[in-house]
């Protein structure tokens, strides 16, 4: 029996996906106009240049190409939506990464992007000039010798073939970068902005990054075409029954054609811009805040509350949006906070607060336990980071049974691991274990922010005292996490912060590597926020002596005159 699709995926996710791709389609004519402006520059006659490109972009002759571009953008956007996730699987070894790239879904994604990029590249070439609009051209002298010529009278337009296959190469590279740099992971902005302002900010950088990536990839394509271009040309001539091209592009002289290079660069940039625009709009729309109902009297919508969203592990996107809504609610919405502190009817129980706080504490405790297991694993084995507690147990069992000889299968496995080829593929990837360890770092940050602000607001807004019973558990969980994070980042094997100066958008913090470094400041800020509001009253909260002593460190320090130090 198949599970019933979640209401969020059927309604909100579908609506946001369609809306994002409609905007991507509407931006295609703008991209076509920009392509014509860039490739037909006429600075001596600026008005004729600008108006002429505008009329050419709106010409009925080009409507067919625009329709093809619309279809390609929609297909690419649909593929992006199918792979969109907030918790991707992170391969730990090169072999696991290779298996991921060769999985059926990845191969389908690559095939679709190869085809779509070929279509986009062909349309871009045809829009720029008619010499690229066809794969065949009349052979030189065929009109004069028509009566004597036997066989096809057209030759292969190798320039058009070169441009179209450059699109296929760029589409394949785009798909590889998509998975290698974890671009299918949905990243939430630090500051929530309106969609228009985010697009206006990111779009110019997207164009620059697309051009930079194309210029880095084209040398490899030129080299490949120089080595394999003759075979491609022979295959195309046999397939289309055409004569060979009079100009051999696969030669050194043919590849030095500046006009062809100009066309390929701008066509490739146009292809990457369209694909990235569809990807960017999809992520912008799905990263927007969704306000869940805190309390409701509708009996048939019991799974649409905030309390259900924060514990919806079956649909991780819903859980992430639930914690984001809780964090913003706790900081900026006094009216909605009242519903958190209210008592549910009938029964008069703080159901909403209990569910929200329990789910938040579960997220904090989960990371604390993984950090403890990782630290224990490093202490036992002295190896690199490993978030898997089973490795710790395995190391302990191996130490306890050290007198037993390993089995034959284990000997064979260890011997195979020592071979250079297998060792290369089975070696753990840099930062992979750390990425797996902090895979839900964003959830932890939102849980810390939400809990701290709710607890601080309860000092004056909690009429029924529903938060007071949970204070010891909340403070204990926060201090335990703070201590675990502090110990972890002091270890030499904890990893280093990725560079902030990554040139390519696909190489920036798309995989969420930098989010882990905001965890310790978030935990410190959360504890300071609670202690500053409650003041010395926190000493009356029932905690262990060790935690009470650590909690005093977060109290404002005063100088000799009694003035708090800044």
TrEMBL record:
Asked if Nucleus is a keyword of the record, the answer is yes
Gene that codes for this?
NDC1
Claim: Membrane is one of the keywords in the record: yes
**UniProt keyword annotations, A-Z:** Membrane, mRNA transport, Nuclear pore complex, Nucleus, Protein transport, Translocation, Transmembrane, Transmembrane helix, Transport
Q: Which residues cross the membrane?
A: 12-36, 63-85, 106-128, 161-180, 220-241, 261-282
The UniProt function text for this chain reads: Component of the nuclear pore complex (NPC), which plays a key role in de novo assembly and insertion of NPC in the nuclear envelope. Required for NPC and nuclear envelope assembly, possibly by forming a link between the nuclear envelope membrane and soluble nucleoporins, thereby anchoring the NPC in the membrane.
**A Pfam family per the record:** Ndc1_Nup
Recorded protein name is Nucleoporin NDC1
Q: Which residue ranges are recorded for the region named Disordered? A: 382-410
Location in or out of the cell: Nucleus membrane; Nucleus, Nuclear pore complex
Q: Which membrane topology term applies here? A: Multi-pass membrane protein
Q: Which domain of life is it from?
A: Eukaryota
Which family does the entry's similarity section mention?
Belongs to the NDC1 family.
Task: List the PANTHER family.
Answer: NUCLEOPORIN NDC1
Top-level taxonomy: Eukaryota, Metazoa, Chordata, Cephalochordata, Leptocardii
Gene Ontology molecular function, alphabetical: protein-macromolecule adaptor activity
Q: Which InterPro entries match?
A: Nucleoporin_prot_Ndc1/Nup (IPR019049)
Q: Cellular component per GO?
A: nuclear membrane; nuclear pore transmembrane ring
One GO BP:
protein transport
């Amino acid at each position: 029996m198949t599970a019933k699709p979640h209401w969020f995926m059927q309604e909100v996710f579908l609506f946001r996906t369609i809306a994002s791709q409609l905007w991507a389609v509407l931006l295609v004519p703008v991209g076509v106009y920009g392509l014509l402006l860039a490739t037909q520059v006429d600075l001596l006659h600026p008005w004729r240049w600008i108006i002429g490109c505008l009329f050419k972009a709106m010409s009925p002759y080009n409507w067919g190409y625009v329709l093809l571009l619309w279809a390609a953008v929609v297909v690419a956007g649909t593929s992006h939506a199918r792979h969109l996730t907030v918790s991707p699987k992170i391969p730990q070894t090169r072999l696991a990464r290779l298996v991921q790239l060769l999985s059926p879904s990845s191969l389908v994604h690559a095939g679709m992007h190869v085809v779509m990029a070929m279509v986009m590249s062909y349309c871009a070439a045809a829009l720029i000039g008619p010499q690229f609009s066809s794969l065949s051209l009349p052979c030189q002298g065929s009109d004069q010798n028509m009566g004597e010529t036997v066989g096809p009278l057209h030759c292969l337009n190798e320039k058009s073939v070169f441009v179209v296959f450059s699109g296929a190469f760029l589409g394949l590279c785009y798909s590889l970068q998509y998975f290698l740099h974890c671009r299918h992971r949905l990243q939430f902005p630090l500051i929530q902005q309106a969609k228009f302002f985010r697009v206006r900010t990111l779009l110019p950088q997207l164009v620059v990054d697309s051009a930079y990536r194309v210029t880095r990839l084209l040398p490899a394509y030129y080299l490949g075409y120089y080595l394999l271009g003759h075979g491609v040309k022979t295959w195309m001539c046999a397939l289309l029954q055409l004569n060979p091209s009079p100009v051999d592009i696969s030669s050194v002289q043919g590849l030095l054609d500046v006009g062809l290079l100009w066309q390929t660069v701008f066509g490739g940039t146009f292809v990457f811009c369209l694909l990235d625009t569809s990807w960017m709009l999809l992520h912008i729309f799905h990263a927007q805040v969704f306000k869940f109902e805190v309390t409701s009297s509708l009996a048939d919508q019991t799974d649409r509350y905030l309390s259900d969203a924060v514990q919806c592990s079956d649909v991780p996107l819903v859980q992430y949006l639930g914690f984001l809504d809780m964090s913003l609610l706790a900081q900026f919405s006094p009216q909605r906070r009242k519903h958190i502190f209210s008592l549910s009817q009938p029964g008069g129980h703080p159901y909403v607060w209990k569910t929200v706080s329990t789910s938040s504490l579960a997220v904090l405790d989960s990371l604390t336990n993984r950090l403890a297991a990782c630290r224990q694993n490093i202490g036992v084995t002295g190896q690199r980071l490993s978030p898997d507690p089973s490795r710790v147990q395995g190391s302990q069992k191996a130490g306890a049974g050290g007198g037993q000889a390993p089995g034959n299968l284990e000997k064979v496995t260890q011997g195979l691991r020592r071979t250079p080829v297998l060792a290369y593929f089975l070696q753990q990837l840099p930062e992979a274990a750390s990425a797996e360890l902090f895979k839900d770092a964003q959830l932890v940050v939102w849980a810390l922010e939400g809990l701290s602000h709710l607890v601080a607001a309860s000092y004056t807004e909690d009429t029924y005292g529903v938060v007071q019973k949970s204070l010891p558990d909340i403070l204990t969980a926060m201090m335990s996490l703070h201590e675990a994070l502090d110990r972890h980042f002091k270890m030499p094997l904890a990893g280093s912060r990725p560079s902030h100066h990554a040139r390519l958008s696909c190489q920036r913090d798309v995989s969420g590597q930098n989010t882990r470094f905001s965890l310790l400041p978030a935990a410190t800020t959360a504890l300071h926020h609670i202690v500053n509001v409650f003041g010395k009253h926190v000493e009356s909260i029932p905690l262990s002596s060790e935690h009470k002593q650590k909690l005093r460190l977060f109290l404002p320090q005063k100088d000799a005159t009694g003035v708090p130090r800044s």
